[in-house]
């Protein structure tokens, strides 16, 4: 979707919905009460989508208005900018407007190009072994337009299952309706209660499956949190596991035991091309079930509203971890009952992204590092403290986000606890619904921190925090002056 003078143009998204249902343009026009020629103009972005028609489309296809957002286009543009920043493409000097035009004209081709680059990077990291030809051939077959059953899907390069699963979860908007509702129904039918889940889940496992929950002091030395001893009917927990982690583990096991069919059904529908990716997806669906069981949709959504999304209060009310609250808020996209669209990111102290999802137009770098101006890096200097930031991205979207370290302290002098932090953010338009807007003067431009998607894809020419030049810009290292960054950047001519 694009916007011109306040009008919404969503031709490509409407075509996608129509194609999914196997409808002709004429059939959809009849269902919407439009003339085929008028729908044709809308699908070709020659006419905007009127508000009443948007409502009809949402009701007809079971999507929210947010589905017609331009987040996919923004993510594609950013990904292409990062890709073209590779020295492999040093002769390519494409402006952002060029990339936008290319994606709008041929989004599938842009996706294939990104898939091929994924394959190139994967092959390069294997040391150009025999896997290279296999990876390139499979990615090229996808670009050649072979049927889905004969090729990996978009971004699903066989040697990169983690990326493939992440792309799939993003396409599903991090919401899996059947699994979510099953977890919610179990919570209500078993009359579970907020903050005291541990005893109830221990009893459930014992009564329903004859499984005992016991502590195994040897697991921690092998970096294992829990292990299910199916033959001995025991769920072994590492010594010292916090209560919020133990209930999450029990939720994972309950999902595997009682809802394996639903979890597997979601994975089968994913279209993931490799066994490794499907195995990772099953783990992800088990985690999703556990999160939905600990924080049932309607109860949690109402509590979040009542408490203005105060993360610490929600954490205490439901007896879960700070990270679990943040992650669950990023999944609240049930059709007709949507919560605030949040983005969620988990990163380590080196800036490696461990987990991410965005229900907003916010987009993360795919091949580069995070922007050093983010408050997530300040969080590591003050562990346990909450850091609030108002930020503006390169496409002028303004977000309110909070960051905090998560995890646990070491258990001995020789322990090396993992240093990680999470960021939760949403459009500043939702600021009045968040307690974290209290005391902020959102009209003061000085409060807004300009962040980017990573230096290689960032188009800001005046950032003193830049580490490397951006793709598609001319570099001027001469002149009679020297700034903090030892060169000037200007858009390439064209």
Automatic annotation (TrEMBL):
Protein keywords? DNA-binding, Transcription, Transcription regulation
Q: Which stretches make up the HTH cro/C1-type domain?
A: 14-68
Say yes or no: keyword DNA-binding present: yes
Q: What InterPro entries would the database entry show? A: Cro/C1-type_HTH, HTH_RamB, IrrE_HExxH, Lambda_DNA-bd_dom_sf, ScfR_C, TransReg_Diox_bact_type
Q: Which CDD domains match?
A: HTH_XRE
- What superkingdom heads the lineage? Bacteria
Would I find DNA-binding among this entry's keywords? yes
User: SMART domains recorded for this chain?
Assistant: HTH_XRE (SM00530)
Pfam families on file: HTH_3, Peptidase_M78, ScfRs
Similarity-based family: Belongs to the short-chain fatty acyl-CoA assimilation regulator (ScfR) family.
Q: What is this protein called?
A: Helix-turn-helix domain-containing protein
């Amino acid at each position: 979707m694009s916007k011109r003078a306040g009008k919404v143009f969503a031709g490509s998204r409407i075509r996608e919905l129509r194609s999914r249902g196997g409808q002709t343009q004429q059939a959809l026009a009849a269902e919407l009460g439009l003339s085929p020629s008028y729908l044709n103009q809308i699908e070709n972005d020659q006419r905007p989508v009127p508000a009443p028609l948007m409502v009809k489309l949402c009701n007809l296809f079971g999507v929210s208005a947010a589905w017609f957002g331009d987040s996919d286009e923004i993510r594609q543009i950013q990904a292409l900018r990062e890709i073209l920043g590779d020295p492999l493409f040093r002769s390519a000097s494409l402006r952002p407007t060029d990339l936008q035009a290319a994606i709008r004209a041929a989004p599938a081709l842009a996706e294939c190009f990104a898939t091929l680059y994924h394959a190139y990077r994967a092959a390069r990291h294997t040391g150009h072994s025999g896997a290279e030809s296999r990876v390139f051939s499979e990615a090229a077959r996808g670009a050649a337009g072979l049927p889905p059953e004969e090729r990996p899907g978009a971004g699903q390069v066989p040697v990169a299952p983690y990326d493939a699963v992440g792309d799939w979860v993003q396409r599903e908007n991090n919401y899996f309706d059947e699994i979510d509702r099953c977890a919610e129904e179990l919570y209500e039918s078993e009359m579970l209660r907020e903050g005291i889940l541990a005893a109830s889940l221990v009893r459930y496992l014992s009564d329903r499956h004859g499984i005992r929950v016991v502590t195994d002091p040897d697991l921690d030395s092998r970096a294992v949190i829990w292990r299910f001893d199916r033959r001995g009917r025991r769920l072994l927990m590492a010594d010292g596991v916090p209560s919020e982690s133990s209930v999450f583990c029990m939720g994972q096991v309950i999902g595997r035991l009682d809802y394996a069919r639903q979890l597997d059904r979601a994975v089968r529908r994913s279209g993931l091309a490799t066994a490794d990716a499907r195995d990772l997806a099953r783990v992800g669906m088990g985690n999703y079930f556990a999160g939905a069981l600990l924080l049932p949709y309607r109860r949690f959504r109402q509590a979040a509203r009542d408490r203005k999304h105060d993360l610490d209060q929600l954490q205490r009310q439901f007896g879960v971890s700070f990270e679990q609250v943040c992650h669950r808020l990023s999944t609240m996209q049930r059709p007709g009952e949507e919560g605030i669209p949040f983005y969620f990111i988990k990163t380590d102290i080196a800036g490696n992204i461990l987990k991410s999802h965005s229900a907003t137009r916010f987009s993360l770098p795919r091949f580069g590092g995070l922007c050093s101006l983010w408050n997530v890096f300040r969080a590591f200097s003050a562990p346990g403290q909450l850091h609030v930031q108002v930020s503006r991205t390169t496409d002028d979207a303004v977000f309110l986000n909070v960051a905090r370290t998560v995890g646990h302290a070491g258990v001995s002098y020789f322990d090396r606890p993992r240093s990680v932090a999470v960021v939760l953010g949403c459009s500043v338009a939702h600021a009045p619904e968040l307690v974290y807007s209290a005391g902020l003067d959102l009209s003061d431009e000085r409060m807004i921190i300009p962040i980017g998607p990573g230096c290689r894809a960032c188009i800001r020419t005046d950032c003193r925090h830049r580490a490397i030049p951006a793709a598609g810009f001319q570099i001027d290292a001469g002149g009679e002056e020297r700034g903090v960054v030892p060169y000037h950047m200007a858009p390439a001519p064209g």
